[in-house]
Design a protein that fits this description.
The chain is of the alpha/beta class. The protein contains 13 helices and nine strands. The strands form two sheets. A seven-stranded mixed β-sheet has the order 3-2-1-4-5-7-6, with helices on both faces. A two-stranded parallel ribbon has the order 8-9.
């Protein structure tokens, strides 16, 4: 599944999802501290919510919402900070995704939005501490405790003031992150493929010329294409794991279509990732002599293409050749 883990610089949940074979990305305006910047989208999450995701797990900031800061609520209501926090929380509550989980401590959203579907504690997932955590769920089941242990220390609440206090208090416990990944996402089909190798690489009826081209593509890329990637390239449907590769190949192998123009700055990190992956695959296909659709990565690419394909320029080159 393609999963967005919003407001997560620690990458705790993202890493657990990746272990299960999912295409998961953390997102935060802060750099990630989980050690995998290649999975981290350091940007405002708002435009990403307009993209298609199979699941969104969100950890919106609780600074202006949690009851632990109730003594500051009056001032925050007056200056608009609390309303900003509410509006940001509701971006996830209202996002167009079939599976959504929103995590926050006990706070005003229980009244402003609705009561949470569940309240969990770290001691239910292997950590002998207390920290009430609310979960608002859509299309997801309640989390089942995985390891109830002794110990009820309020370690997070007792943290002394520091520049990093808010970030440390917001980090997801490893046991909870693991439970979220395993119970909400489960193992990806990717991890079960070895049991069904014949099925995932089976042949299906398709245009003989395209089939020949795809054999050359597999040789150029150095790996075999799944059956659903091949059918997506030909028909634009039946897409499962490997969607990005299939979409790129469908774009590149449609040689009769107009050139792809990537000279404009990409509006999101996801688009930038797609662009770079397309560039790598195109280089491999071009080196193997496989015809691909023209792609403009720079303005110079576009200008060169226009010069070479201008009828007057083409006629001039032909005349020069004849004169030789």
């Amino acid at each position: 599944m393609k999963i967005l883990v919003a407001c997560e610089e620690s990458q705790a949940v993202t890493i657990e999802l990746r272990k299960l074979g999912h295409e998961a990305y953390s997102c935060d305006i802060e750099p990630c501290s989980g050690g995998h910047p290649e999975w981290h989208l350091q940007q405002d999450v708002t435009p990403l919510l307009k993209e298609k995701w199979d699941m969104v797990i969100a950890f919106p900031p609780c600074t202006h919402l949690a009851v632990s800061g109730a003594r500051y609520f009056e001032q925050k209501r007056k200056d608009g900070r609390q309303q900003q926090g509410i509006d940001f929380f509701m971006l996830f509550a209202n996002c167009d995704c079939p599976k959504v989980a929103i995590e926050n401590p006990v706070g005003i959203m229980s009244n402003v939005y609705r009561k949470p579907d569940q309240i969990i504690q770290p001691w239910q997932f292997g950590h002998g501490e207390t920290k009430k955590t609310c979960l608002w769920l859509k299309g997801l089941s309640l989390l089942k405790p995985t390891n109830i242990v002794d110990g009820r220390e309020a370690r997070v609440w007792k943290m002394p003031p520091s520049a990093e206090r808010a970030k440390l208090r917001s980090k997801t416990y490893p046991g909870i992150a693991k439970a979220m990944a395993e119970q909400w996402a489960g193992k990806s089909e990717k991890l079960n493929m070895d049991k069904n190798m014949d099925w995932i690489y089976r042949t299906v009826p398709m245009d003989p010329e395209l089939e020949k081209t795809l054999e050359a593509v597999e040789k150029a890329l150095g790996f075999r294409l799944f059956v659903w990637q091949k059918t997506y390239i030909e028909r634009g449907c039946f897409r499962q794991y490997g969607a990005t590769t299939a979409e790129i190949l469908r774009d590149l192998l449609n040689v009769s279509e107009a050139p792809l123009d990537y000279t404009r700055k990409q509006s999101s990190r996801m688009q930038s990732v797609y662009r770079e992956e397309l560039r790598k695959i195109k280089e491999k296909l071009d080196a193997a002599g496989i015809p691909t659709r023209p792609v403009f990565f720079t303005k110079q690419d576009r200008e060169r293409y226009l010069r070479e394909n201008d009828p007057r320029e083409r006629a001039r080159r032909q005349q020069d050749t004849r004169n030789l």
